[in-house]
Design goal:
The protein is an alpha+beta fold. Helices cover 17% and strands 41% of the residues.
Length: 460
């Protein structure tokens, strides 16, 4: 039979076979093969054999990996071929929309499985391709969202992990987590996610945590402070470098379940079981309550402060003659509730729109960085996209993707360019100085899938 190997390749294969059989103590088989091939000890002694011992196994595993990659590529090729055959002019044009109009579409790029109980929270690393997820299984998992692979599992909390967030001083990014075990923990990604500090102080479950940006709005964020919300009815502001509690904010009459800071770090928006949303000015020594928003008919579960890019659309909903200055950082807000409603608010305290469509508790909200859309997730197993330029019309409902409740949603942070340069597909938002931000078209969600939890990555 004609061989497809060159004489050099055949010689390498024969030596690898002999070395493998010898390493497995199959001496009779190795001796027989030597005799058949005419490869004696004088030609291929034990010292030379050691160099070949693991070669056959390495080649074998490499072939398996390559085979898997080929199968994956064949699947992708078939999908692309199907897209090409069914393409229309309009569908082709949508492929080249700028990122300001991109919305997550099914199917997700990755479905990440490893948590043993529901996923409660997700957060993107501001620079690297890392995503953190927290779960009721007491763990935090770090994923590579580019490869869809689990990097590590972090253990330390003794009860459910309820929220995670990346932030910290520039050049020293940290991961913060909070839990039903009444603790906040700080982890160092540069040191294999070592637990560097634990912040005690709350007297009950801690449900939400966020790093508070510092510096001008739009500039690359840097922070040594973070805020937490707890079932002890308080918000606390912490210094992550000293682990000291700097402020305790009271005012909520029941559990503040969620909190988010403005982009410049001056304001906090909190909401919770007292069915209110409250805006706080934390720029002075004592936090000042600027606004109280009432309207929901059940516990509020999530909130967000609108980015300045959404001001033109929200100003029309609010019947304003002029859109607020882009430098203003707390002009419009959104809240989601167990009453299945999403409410949009303005800085005068008015509810400017009620978005109705979800059939169960609204769990998570995030504004599109381009400003035109709002994304929501809920216990009705859907993700919905609302077009703020069309008076909040629901323009997309993602069904059939989730097996259970959708608990959280996060948009990947912008890629900030200090010199103002972006590559061809970027969408630029002017920041301080020459900094620009390029929208990253990527969304992550966490959910309940049976008794387990899954993370889904949607990307362009």
């Amino acid at each position: 039979m004609a061989t497809i190997l060159t004489s050099r390749q055949a010689e390498e294969l024969h030596k690898s076979l002999i070395a493998y059989l010898s390493s497995q103590n199959l001496t009779q088989a190795a001796t027989a093969l030597r005799g058949e091939l005419g490869v004696g000890e004088e030609v291929f002694d034990s010292e030379k054999s050691k160099k070949y011992e693991g070669l056959l196994e390495k080649k074998w595993t490499s072939a398996v990996r390559l085979q898997k990659k080929i199968l994956d590529l064949e699947i992708k090729n078939a999908a692309l071929q199907s897209d090409l055959e069914n393409a229309t002019l309009s569908s082709l044009s949508r492929r080249h929309q700028d990122p300001a109009n991109w919305l997550p579409k099914a199917p997700p790029r990755y479905v990440l499985e490893s948590h043993q109980k529901p996923v409660t929270c997700v957060a993107f690393h501001p620079v690297f391709s890392s995503l953190a997820s927290g779960s009721e299984d007491y763990t935090i998992k770090i994923w590579d969202w580019e490869l869809g692979e689990l990097e590590r599992t972090i253990k330390g909390h003794t009860k459910a992990v309820l929220d995670v967030d990346f932030g910290g001083p520039r050049g020293g990014t940290l991961l913060a987590s909070c839990s039903s075990d009444l603790s906040i923990k700080l982890w160092d990604p540069s040191d294999e996610y070592k637990n560097i500090r634990t912040l005690p102080g709350h007297d009950h479950i801690i449900s939400s945590i966020r790093f508070i940006p510092s510096g001008a709005a739009g500039a690359p964020s840097s922070s040594t402070h973070l805020v937490s919300a707890s079932k002890d009815n308080t918000l606390k502001i912490w210094d992550v470098t000293t682990a000291y509690c700097l402020k305790t904010i009271t005012g909520h009459t029941d559990w503040p379940r969620a909190v988010c800071p403005s982009i410049d770090g001056r304001y906090l928006l909190s909401t919770g079981s007292d069915q209110s949303a409250r805006l706080w000015d934390i720029s002075s020594r004592e936090a000042e309550q600027k606004l109280i928003l009432f309207g929901h008919e059940n516990f509020n579960l999530c909130c967000a402060i609108a980015p300045s890019t959404s001001y033109p659309h929200l100003s029309k909903l609010a019947n304003l003659d002029k859109s607020p200055s882009p430098n203003s950082t707390a002009e419009f807000f959104v809240t989601g509730s167990r009453d299945k409603q999403i409410r949009l608010w303005d800085a005068r305290g008015n509810c400017i729109k009620v978005l109705v469509g979800h059939d169960n508790w609204v769990r998570g909200l995030v504004f599109h960085p381009g400003g035109k859309y709002l994304i929501s997730v809920a216990d009705d197993r859907t993700m919905r996209c609302w077009d703020l330029s069309q008076e909040g019309k629901c323009v997309q409902v993602m069904k059939g993707v989730y097996e259970g409740f959708v608990s959280c949603v996060r948009w990947a942070p912008d890629v900030v360019k200090e010199d103002g340069g972006v590559n061809g597909n970027g969408f630029e938002k002017k920041g301080a100085g020459t900094a620009t931000a390029q929208i990253r078209c990527m969304v992550a969600t966490g959910s309940v899938d049976g008794v387990e939890g899954k993370v889904r990555i949607f990307a362009s």
